[in-house]
Amino acid sequence: PASARIAVGGASDGALRRALTRGNAWIGVGTPEETAANLKRLRRLSAMTERSDSLGALEINVVATASLDASVVRQYEDLGVDQLIVFPSSIDMPLDEALAKLITLR
Known about the structure:
17% strand; alpha/beta; four-stranded parallel β-sheet; 106 residues; elongated
């Protein structure tokens, strides 16, 4: 459907180009440092890649692999990450506690 939003994941140049030319969002995986490197490549490729205005601005989503605290969340924000994707089950505490902790980091 025309209203379906497409998120493209991956860190290869091909995946980044697909995100730029066909996606509404890009999904990366990594620490703030790895994310910074991927975003640098994404910016370089975007200078050489035509993006349709109909797609709007590319949303940046990242599966966070760093241990999260407020300063790490800010690092992702400072990089321009629109959405952090986290897996509370990987945190060594009950799920309710993990979710409560993650919410406080906003």
